[in-house]
Amino acid sequence: MDFKKIIHTLQKRQQTIATMESCTGGGVVNTITNQEGASEILKFSAVTYSNEYKIKMGVDSKVIDKYTVYSMETADEMSKNITKFADSDYGIGITGQLNRKDPNNPTGEDNVVYISIYDKTKDKYYQKELRVHKESRELNKDYIIDNIIMILEEILKIKD
To answer: At what angle are helices 137-155 and 4-13 packed, to 10 degrees?
Structure first.
């Protein structure tokens, strides 16, 4: 799976996207920028591995305190705030744990990832909670990215 159809659709609609990634470590934006035309639709991307930088990028610290950094509520904050920051049409927020406990955030379930895609025009979140089960972080990231592509194809109503 790749972002070709998504990029083409966003280009035709003159729409843009931004990402705030945590556990995928920039994998989503890398996949986007591997395609021609990415510069026309990608506004901004941030890899916010730490709580500190999630908060600096607009995530409400009270949300992290109440729900943990590994929650759909935090993913929603990430997707909406990156959309605002970049003034994009869509924002992707991803947080979760892949194959290891985070010593800085001991709460939260292992191998669960929260994906939130925010649509500014509709003021709507599209959410998915994934259980990752691959042996390596790299394979888990690929699995997450494939799911994001499927969600975006549904949101944008892209047919094969």
So the answer is: 40
Q: How big is the chain, counted in residues?
A: 160
* CATH classification of the domain holding 38: 3.90.950.20
pLDDT one-digit tens code per residue, 87-140: 999 999 999 988 666 666 656 667 899 999 999 999 999 999 999 988 888 999
Q: Is residue 24 part of a domain?
A: yes
How many domains would you assign to the chain?
Answer: 1
CA–CA gap between residue 118 and residue 127 (Å, rounded): 9
Compute the distance between CA of residue 90 and CA of residue 83 in angstroms, rounded to an integer. 6
Residue 160 inside a domain? The answer is no
Q: What six digits make up the tokens of 122?
A: 């509709």
Beta-strand relationship, 17-21 and 90-96: parallel
